[in-house]
Design a protein that fits this description.
Layout lengths: L1 H15 L1 H30 L2 H20 L5 H32 L1 H18 L8 H23 L11 H12 L3 H10 L4 H6 L2 H5 L5 H35 L7 E4 L2 E7 L2 E10 L4 E4 H29 L3 H24 L15 H6 L1 H6 L5 H25 L6
Antiparallel strand pairs: 1-4, 2-3
Helix pairs in contact: 1-11, 2-8, 2-11, 3-4, 4-5, 5-6, 7-11, 7-12, 8-11, 8-12, 8-13, 11-12, 12-13, 12-16
């Protein structure tokens, strides 16, 4: 009963605080920026015709070639002609692909079946077993995955979203993979940064500890409210991004399939022993529609932000100044993000033990993080890493708060 009273009291204080208003305003500004970017992308897509663009580029290259060919023969002229001929061949290939894509939009089933036939022909040419190089094994696995995905489209009547059309579902997934490591954690820090430190600064914490409520009950209630508010705010924000995208791009692409649960094996190639070849394994992977991916990612973002709230709560307990606690928590998020990005790019395995590495838990699930790190990482290990960070820092928060001399501070 006392915990319920603490929860109700802390929730009322959180709702009345200016920080919640600031977070709401900043979140809406972020949604507005995302919507503006989607609107610009939609306008650019409307004004872009890939066939006309490639035809214009081809005409311009042929014009340049005619002008150069009329010059006196020389080695430099011949090199320029070779370069332009290569560019013309590339543009012609792109023009052919654009025409095929335009035809595919008319009859996507025929296009998918043609693609499946081409994949089967390529698979027949790739060696199997121990005779295959690591790069060939990786290519075979990717082709088999594409074949499975195309068959899924046919079986479930899922038409691809062809460029220049955009899918709000795909755009939201892409944006969240960045926002959940940068923007959203900073909003959580602003929200929770003064949860304890603010009352230390104002002195109102003394009025709480003299009441017949244990310190650990008081701190536990504050932590629960911090975690719940952070999870709810981040989850709602994810769906506001999606709603903004749907309002601009439309609802197409909701059933677009995505692979989840992909694992990788990294093998040294005989012809390039310095680099590792990532061989995907789809044995335990499965296809999930885009709308369900957005739901899963939103839930995972909420979980990750609950951990960020716990880390911020620890800073708020350790430092008596709300400004200092907020600054330290922001530094942990920003510096952690920079460190993990640099270490991940260099394939440093130790970075998988840092909490910023797993703020985008969806990348742990779909295999993107494994491919970047070149070390085994799963959704379960990512969640476990975050929970260990949260548990350790929460325990230290209770120890610190229980030993503080608050009444004489």
């Amino acid at each position: 009963m006392r915990l319920w009273n603490v929860l109700r009291n802390e929730w009322m204080k959180l709702v009345r605080r200016r920080r919640l208003t600031v977070v709401a305003v900043l979140g809406l500004c972020l949604v507005g920026l995302f919507a503006f970017g989607e609107y610009q992308a939609r306008q650019n897509a409307r004004n872009y015709n890939p066939i006309v663009a490639q035809q214009n580029a081809l005409a311009e290259l042929k014009k340049q070639r005619s002008a150069i060919a009329s010059e006196p023969p020389s080695q430099a002229r011949d090199q320029q002609l070779q370069s332009i001929d290569a560019a013309i061949a590339s543009v012609q290939q792109q023009l052919q692909e654009a025409k095929q894509q335009a035809q595919a939009q008319v009859d996507w089933r025929a296009s998918v079946k043609t693609e499946m036939d081409n994949i089967r022909q390529e698979l027949a040419q790739i060696p199997t077993g121990s005779a295959a190089l690591p790069s060939e094994q990786a290519r075979r696995a990717d082709l088999q995955a594409e074949l499975t995905l195309d068959q899924y489209r046919l079986d479930h009547d899922v038409a691809p979203v062809f460029r220049p059309k955009l899918s709000a579902w795909e755009e939201t997934l892409s944006f969240l993979s960045v926002a959940d490591k940068t923007f959203i954690p900073l909003l959580v820090v602003v929200l929770v940064g003064d949860m304890v430190a603010g009352e230390m600064t104002s002195g109102t914490i003394k009025l709480l500890v003299v009441r017949p409520v244990r310190r650990r009950t008081l701190l536990f209630g504050k932590w629960l409210v911090s975690v719940a508010a952070s999870a709810v705010v981040s989850f709602v924000l994810c769906w506001l991004f999606l709603l903004a995208g749907l309002a601009i791009q439309g609802t197409q692409g909701a059933l677009e399939p995505h692979w989840l649960g992909v694992t990788y094996q990294f093998v040294k190639s005989p012809d390039d022993p310095l680099n590792l070849t990532a061989i995907p394994n789809y044995a335990h992977a499965y296809l999930v529609p885009a709308w369900l991916c957005v739901l899963y990612q939103s839930l995972l973002v909420a979980l990750a932000m609950a951990v960020v709230a716990t880390i911020t709560f620890f800073c708020s307990t350790v430092f008596k100044s709300s400004m200092v606690s907020t600054a330290v928590a922001m530094g942990a998020v920003v510096i952690g993000y920079v460190v993990t990005e640099i270490a991940t790019a260099r394939g440093q395995g130790w970075v998988r033990w840092l909490f910023p590495t797993h703020l985008d838990l969806f990348s742990d699930w779909n295999g993107d993080l494994v491919r970047a790190l070149q070390h085994p990482v799963t959704l379960g290990s990512g969640i476990l890493t975050l929970l260990v960070w949260a548990a350790v820092l929460l325990m230290l928060s209770f120890i610190r708060f229980g030993r503080q001399d608050i009444l004489n501070a």
